[in-house]
Design goal:
There is one protein chain. The protein has 11 helices and 8 strands. Helix 10 runs parallel beside helix 11. It starts with a helix and ends in a 5-residue tail after the last helix.
Length: 300
């Protein structure tokens, strides 16, 4: 099922959708654990799960295979990430044909991060430099590929484009090219999401904007992730993190509690759902979704 349909059905029922993002495990044991995780999530009603590419597109084949298996072997919709990194038009065509033949309906179209060790993104000679170009390419043959396309949004600006007005224009270009919905980069201050959403609507962007949330598990982890993506850590959260820097259990509990409060506030104020960046750590996200299902803050 198309994710836009899932969003529409949920909106008609007055409910949000929840989705989970995983990266491809490196071992068969990891793959087995991933499928067990998805099975454990099913009673909580996730709308879909998605599988990322590794750095530089290094896990492309495994990502596609996992998405195909998830769609075939579970009752949860699956979405594949697709990036421009190291990919020619022929490479992308091959992947899209394979997804279409497998009945995969949803694709997250991204530029992608440079391979590890490269400071700047360099497109393939016969590829694309921007996600908007990838979206336009996929939309260029609508009878061949009937995908529902997601794209990324950056409430605090892309780490390479700190000019918020310019970054919003880039987002609008992806939507104009054919993106059906947006999922935001992680953030820790909900004001960034709501301000971005208001600016996006004012700029003529009407597609759903789903907030992306990452429950953190350690102080070092959240510092590393925010350094990579450019997200800010609010002063009060940073102070609470510092107290727990040498307390792994305390840091993990803080991450769970903070993300739960974030999600409840987002849903209470009208966000269409939550996309969890799980980092393949399902117990935390399962606990958060269980609490949200029990409290239903969107009905408050």
């Amino acid at each position: 099922m198309r994710i836009t349909d899932l969003l529409r059905f949920a909106r008609e029922r007055g409910e949000p959708i929840f989705s989970f993002e995983f990266f491809p495990p490196k071992t068969e044991e990891g793959v087995k654990a991933l499928f067990q995780t998805v099975e454990a999530l099913r009673p909580l009603g996730p709308a879909y799960v998605c599988v990322t590419y590794g750095a530089g597109g290094s896990t492309r084949a495994r990502t596609i295979e996992l998405v195909k298996r998830l769609r075939q072997d579970t009752e949860v919709e699956a979405m594949a990430h697709l990036t421009c990194v190291g990919a020619s038009r022929d490479d992308l065509t091959s992947v899209l044909d394979e997804l279409a033949e497998a009945g995969v309906h949803n694709v997250m179209a991204l530029r992608g991060d440079p391979p590890r060790g490269q400071g700047a993104f360099t497109p393939h000679a016969d590829g694309f430099r921007h996600a908007s170009e990838l979206v336009a390419f996929i939309r260029s043959q609508p009878q061949r590929w009937r995908f529902c396309l997601g794209a990324a949004a950056y409430p605090e600006g892309h780490v390479e484009t700190r000019d918020l007005a310019l970054d919003l224009r880039h987002t609008r270009e992806k939507v104009d090219a054919g993106a059906d919905f947006l999922v935001t980069q992680l953030f820790f201050d909900n004001a960034h999401y709501f301000t971005f959403s208001e600016r996006a609507r004012a700029a003529g962007i009407t597609v759903p904007i789903v907030p992306g949330i990452m429950p953190f598990h350690s102080v070092e982890q959240v510092e590393r992730m925010t350094a990579m993506c450019g997200a800010a850590i609010p002063r009060a959260l940073r102070a609470a993190m510092e107290v727990r820097r040498e307390d792994p259990d305390g840091a993990r509990e803080l991450g769970l509690a903070y993300a739960t409060l974030q999600c409840a506030d987002l849903l209470r104020r009208g966000a269409p759902g939550v996309h969890f960046y799980t980092l393949n750590r399902s117990p935390t996200t399962r606990a958060i979704l269980s609490a949200l299902r029990a409290s239903e803050p969107w009905r408050g």
